[in-house]
């Protein structure tokens, strides 16, 4: 822990961080009563697994070794922690979408628990847990790269009409991007109305 004492606001990226690495780290540091000290220097985590899934839906699997072979045509030792970290850095740089990773796939140390990571209140997962979105609808924004912030901005620009335009926009196949069901969209609009949400830029 002394290695990080000279810096603050550090973010730890990892592949499948949200379901594995950060939870394991939390449990170990809690056991030794070091989590609070850790959180003074580390503000949160990035998870590159869902990030890569959104960018490359055509991949057969999302193990880091497979992704390295597909994107960089490189093989490496996944059992070497240093090589693993260096490769992850190279993969993120290769996507040229670091801004998306930062804005959409960050979660704070305060969200980590013994068993899972609590959803950010400004996330699609939060809408799912509050039954604003059904699981079927929830998957569609993930597949189309829409985020919570896109919904929020559309609502604040033009209320229900803004959301309807965004979500019912026709794709190349002629289908609605997410949904053209007015009842589904009204439920999202009602959520933002009740929340009295404020746009963060």
From TrEMBL:
Residues 11-91 form the Exonuclease domain. SUPFAM superfamilies: Ribonuclease H-like (SSF53098). Coiled coil: none annotated. It holds the Pfam family RNase_T. Residues 120-192 form the PML C-terminal domain. InterPro entries: PML_C (IPR057617), Ribonucl_H (IPR013520), RNaseH-like_sf (IPR012337), RNaseH_sf (IPR036397). It comes from the Eukaryota. This is Uncharacterized protein. GO terms for molecular function: nucleic acid binding.
């Amino acid at each position: 822990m002394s290695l990080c004492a000279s810096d603050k606001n550090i973010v730890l990226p990892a592949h499948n961080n949200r379901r594995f690495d950060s939870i394991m780290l939390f449990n170990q540091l809690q056991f030794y009563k070091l989590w609070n000290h850790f959180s003074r220097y580390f503000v949160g985590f990035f998870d590159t697994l869902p990030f890569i899934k959104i960018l490359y839906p055509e991949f057969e699997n999302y193990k880091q070794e497979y992704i390295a072979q597909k994107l960089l045509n490189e093989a490496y030792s996944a059992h070497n922690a240093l090589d693993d970290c260096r490769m992850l850095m190279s993969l993120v740089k290769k996507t040229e979408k670091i801004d998306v990773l930062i804005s959409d796939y960050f979660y704070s140390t305060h969200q980590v628990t013994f068993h899972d990571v609590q959803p950010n209140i400004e996330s699609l997962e939060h809408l799912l847990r509050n039954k604003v979105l059904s699981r079927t609808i929830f998957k569609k924004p993930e597949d189309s790269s829409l985020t919570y912030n896109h919904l929020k901005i559309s609502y604040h620009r033009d209320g229900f009409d803004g959301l309807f335009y965004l979500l019912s926009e026709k794709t190349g196949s002629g289908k609605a991007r997410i949904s053209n069901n007015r009842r589904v969209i009204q439920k999202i609009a009602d959520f933002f109305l009740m929340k009295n949400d404020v746009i963060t830029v």
